[in-house]
């Protein structure tokens, strides 16, 4: 009796390389739209930078170009229990910027005014 050692062929609509924050999020949303998604990662999903760094969720101190996406990310993270059944162990804490001289206050005040336009209080 011969063993058939051929691999089972699987068909996917989308194959995503990288199981970090971006790859996993994309896979989840595509699967929710009914697509067949394969998510491949060298080791364990979320075990590299995405698993230890919630920097993408920070809104304080972001540039004007980054802030709209960071605000949107915070809204998504707030919905993690609804989306994936767990809170992702996210702990919202502060972000500290210090003014060492009077001129630094102007920079911080300008940033704060810009951030307020995006709904971020500082």
Task: Describe what this molecule looks like in 3D.
The chain is mainly α. It contains five helices and two strands, in the order E-H-E-H-H-H-H. It has helices at residues 21-32, 49-52, 67-78, 80-84, 102-116; strands at residues 14-17, 37-40. It has a two-stranded parallel ribbon. Helix 1 links the parallel strand 1 and strand 2. The protein is elongated and about 80 Å long. 6% of the residues are buried. The mean pLDDT is 86.
Brief rundown of the structure:
With 122 residues, this protein is mostly helical.
Ends: how far apart?
Answer: 72 Å
Question: What can be said about the biggest beta sheet?
Answer: 2 strands, parallel
As a percent range, the share of strand residues is 5-15%
Number of strand elements: 2
- Tell me the quaternary state: single chain
Name a few traits of the molecule.
122 residues, mainly alpha, two-stranded parallel ribbon, 2 strands, 39% helix
List the helices and strands and how they pair.
Elements: E1 14-17, H1 21-32, E2 37-40, H2 49-52, H3 67-78, H4 80-84, H5 102-116
Parallel strand pairs: 1-2
